[in-house]
Known about the structure:
- The protein contains 15 helices and 13 strands.
- By secondary structure, the protein is α/β, with parallel strands linked by helices.
- The protein folds into three domains: 3-106; 134-186, no CATH class; 196-400, Rossmann fold (3-Layer(aba) Sandwich).
- Helix 9 links the parallel strand 5 and strand 6.
Amino acid sequence: MTPAARIQSAIELLDQVIAAALAKGAPADRILSDWFRGHRFAGSKDRAAIRELVYRAIRACGPIPQTGRAAMLRLAEEDPALLLQFGGTPYGPAPIEDGELVAGGGIAPQWLAERLAASDIAGPDAEALLGRAPLDIRVNALKASRATIALPLEGEPLPSPHGRRLPPGTPVERWDAYEQGLIEVQDCGSQLACEAVEARPGETIIDLCAGAGGKTLALAAALQAHEPGEGRGQGQGTLIAADTDRGRLQRLAPRAARAGARVDHTILLDPGRELEALAPWREQADAVLVDAPCSGTGTWRRNPEARWRLDPPALDRLNALQNHLLRVAAALVKPGGRLICVTCSLLDEEGPLQTATFLAAHPGWRAVPPDLPLGAPHGPGWRLHPARDGTDGFFIARLLKP
């Protein structure tokens, strides 16, 4: 493909990404994967170049663009060399007309940029949300040790006890170590959120929003890695993974089998009736992890178009759901136990304000900052930030029940 044809293909893909964002449809990575499968003539270099153009254009636009062409013209303002390809050549973009529409720049739609600024995320801190994310892995302590595992690329040790950082795009899922369950792809911040649970052998741990089980597997390793003897020893703990999404939850079993991780109970929840399914563990859990659904502002480096999918009513619904899940979790924690609230968001309404609301409604509960090697106190919890910590953005609160 010619450079101009690559740009035109990127424009057409951006049109699909924009339409999907408005309709809350497929994410950008899936749209690109489907397009590449249907366009076999695009070689590996073409695919890499088109993907790069699409994501650069997404990052260059703050508000959602009117069209894919407007988004590409916005990128061309940052990279004028692209303008040379708008010449009307076969399979390339049409020439630029005077006064043609160009998408707006910025970090996010105006209302969302203002919410971030009110949460102390502005300037370079905000710009870092749209940088390129690294590739972090977690060495599975049930099968290997970070100090001795042999990998095609050694990587850089992370502050998380089992983490390593590799160059973006490293094909770890093709490695034997991945196929054998020795490693998992997991951001350093996510690994540290699991460390905040302080899961210990013999405890009962509930992952209330388990999804496909990324954090569940890390908790399983913490529960099982130091159990005495083989199989069910004296230190045997209990791990419960629960979620309302059947499709995501079904992916946990094969992942756990590959990792050699034991998940004692996998519970499909009915939204609004979670405590009915979890009744056997009411006030029985030593710790409950609530990795609550959120805006995902801390993950924009990986999913930059996510900021186009959010609007104030959607954020209000997420806030209400987070509040509900914290109340459900509180009923499951035993006296003296702990509730770990995690959101991959940097908006205060999904972090410190949500936690403060919970504490005001639950007398006797108290917040104890997690002991983590990265991040800093933020309200009654802890914040991890891409610009300062090199992780995805997270808010983590560790709440103790009287």
